[in-house]
Amino acid sequence: MNIPFFKNKKSEEPSLYHDENIADHIAIVMDGNGRWAKKRGMPRIAGHKEGVSTVMNIVKAAVKYKVKVLTLYAFSTENWKRPKSEIDFILRLPKEFLHIYLPELIANNVRIDAIGDMENLPHHTIEAVQYAIDRTRDNDGLQLNFALNYGSRNEILNTMKEMVRDIHDGKLSLDEVDEQQFSRYLYTANLPDPDLLIRTGGEKRLSNFLLWQLAYTEFWFTDVLWPDFSEEEFLNALKEYQQRQRRYGGL
Ligand code: IPE
Ligand code: IPE
Ligand code: MG
To answer: Which residue, by CA, sits nearest to atom 6 of ligand 1?
Structure first.
């Protein structure tokens, strides 16, 4: 028998958004800026610039849909391999983003934070981010984390070194070292693990992002390039998450 060639569109559409199973913590690998620009015959940095307004659109959507924590991968420890001019441009974007949007973020009760090896970033980047962190410290709405100069292996190694140092100094005993204790030494110490990981730009890999923290996270990939990523796409990810069944190894 021939199976009729049509798609049951309804069954593919995620159900309506509701208040149950909201992903509290969403982590996003914002990928595809360079390809977005290349497709338009523009230099890669034009894609990074365009990606800045997407960040704000998605932050506003996260506020709207009551996400508690949004962690955005903005610059990896491996991105230093890129041409200096591109690196310089990317590392100026946090300042630009905050210059334009900080008042709106404050109006939305957003609390800003950062994870990563911040010390080795240019001063202007650190200053801009630190100002925003201080300025939004008392806000209790969405927590917005920027992963800047972030690399998960580097984070795990540093954690291990710090723990060994604390054991050596008698501040920590080896018997106390368990998964919870280990998590407290990570950049994400006070955060719940992400419920949902989104990666735009079509690649299906983690690129050294939150390796420890993503152990039981749900993954959602899209080919849409970051500058084209919209509230509608974001909502599709949230809705699909609501239909996932998490088992954590159980039944
Ligand atoms: C992601 O876009 C942004 C950063 C890594 C800073 P890319 O710059 O990786 O864009 P593609 O993947 O080359 O298209
Ligand atoms: C991951 O994207 C890092 C960020 C989005 C900041 P990359 O473009 O650097 O990842 P790879 O090189 O394709 O794995
Ligand atoms: Mg990329």
So the answer is: 75
